[in-house]
Amino acid sequence: MEVALIVISALFGIAVGSFLNVCIDRLPSGESLLFPASRCAACHQHLAIKDLIPIFSYLRLRGRCRYCQASIPKRLLWVEISTGILFAYLYWYYGLSAELAITVFYCCLFLVIMVIDLEHGIIPNKIVYPSMAVALVISIFLPPSRVAYPGETATLLFNAFLPELGIAQAAIGGSIGLVLFLLIVIISGGGMGWGDVKMAALIGII
């Protein structure tokens, strides 16, 4: 039964990865996530359902558009595979719990931000600012964190994926991250961008 649930989690993660690819493709340009229907970026032909099956369609079409034979970005495949593996692991680690839902949300959020930043060099405000608000709301339902001694921080981050913060600590953490990175931007004379400042604030809240 447990193995079956892990497999189901992986399949669900793959489906979510397909949606995250839509977010990655459309959010930077301000397009709606729902309309128009998915289409080839090269020939703009609307894709049939058989062209949109996560992982399977990419492999079946050998990474090329059915209509114009243009290459399909490999990123679509790797995001779907990554989210499938991630969801399976997180379910195995947390089980069906609130911690699972929160961690899945943050992992998907940072995956979208990371790929958009790599491909476009931007971190859209329409992602970061709402995420800050959501993170503050989530922090209301989390108990205050204990103080981590030097050397424990990495263990806490990698073993738990997110610190347990109360809303006051979340607000303080976000403010500290914002101020520190703002100073770095000013001192470096542009060596870091405002996107890094926003990310620091978001991470501080989380």
Question: How would you summarize the topology of this molecule?
Answer:
Blueprint: H1 2-26, H2 56-60, H3 74-94, H4 98-120, H5 125-140, H6 153-160, H7 167-188, H8 194-205
Largest sheet: none
Strand tally: 0
Residue share in β-strands: under 5%
Distance, first to last CA: 33 Å
Q: How would you sum up the global shape?
A: flat
Quickly describe the structure:
The chain is built from 8 helices and no strands. It has 206 residues and is mainly alpha-helical.
Q: How would you explain this protein's 3D organization?
A:
The protein is mainly alpha-helical. It folds into 2 domains: 1-122, no CATH class; 123-206, no CATH class. 64% of the residues lie in helices and 0% in strands. The protein is built from 8 helices and no strands. Helix 5 (125-140) runs antiparallel to helix 7 (167-188) and helix 5 (125-140) runs parallel beside helix 8 (194-205). The longest helix is centred in the N-terminal third of the chain and has 25 residues, at 2-26. The radius of gyration is 19 Å and the shape is flat. The protein starts with a helix and ends with a helix.
